[in-house]
Amino acid sequence: MSESHSAHGEHSHGSVKSYVIGLILSLVLTIIPFAVVMTGAMATTPTVLIIVATAVAQVLVQLVMFMHMNTKADEGWNFMSFVFTITILLLVIGGTLWIMHHLHLNMMIG
């Protein structure tokens, strides 16, 4: 059995090895923020930064390992989808952090 399956114009559909690596990375990137929050070992700012960093990494792992998005020039729509996803990811995460920061400032009792 070959390492990767090709169909529909020779597009790669991945291999068992790439799916297992993606699964392991996804599990690790889920356990890290869970452990940081549950242990309460860190202050608020480093905890939020760890959660954001692992969330971004999780999305990238999902896109590359499971959805097989890459930056090959011959797959223009694939690249455009990747750029669109990164743009939306930055907007959503950046907007969320901005709103949370302003809520924190406005809710401070002083």
UniProtKB/TrEMBL annotation:
GO molecular function, one term: proton transmembrane transporter activity
Transmembrane segments: 20-41, 48-67, 79-100
Subcellular localization, as worded in the UniProt entry: Cell membrane
Cellular component terms per the entry's GO annotation: cytochrome o ubiquinol oxidase complex; plasma membrane
Domain of life where this protein originates: Bacteria
Entries under InterPro entries matching the protein: Cyt_c_oxidase_su4_prok, Cyt_o_ubiqinol_oxidase_su4, Cytochrome_c_oxidase_bac_sub4
Location, primary (coarse class): membrane
Keyword field: Cell membrane, Electron transport, Membrane, Oxidoreductase, Transmembrane, Transmembrane helix, Transport
Pfam families per the UniProt record, alphabetical: COX4_pro
Gene Ontology biological process terms from the UniProt entry: aerobic electron transport chain; electron transport coupled proton transport
Bilayer topology: Multi-pass membrane protein
Family to which the UniProt record says this protein belongs: Belongs to the cytochrome c oxidase bacterial subunit 4 family.
Subunit structure: Heterooctamer of two A chains, two B chains, two C chains and two D chains.
Biological role stated in the UniProt entry: Cytochrome bo(3) ubiquinol terminal oxidase is the component of the aerobic respiratory chain of E.coli that predominates when cells are grown at high aeration. Has proton pump activity across the membrane in addition to electron transfer, pumping 2 protons/electron.
Annotated protein name in UniProt: Cytochrome bo(3) ubiquinol oxidase subunit 4
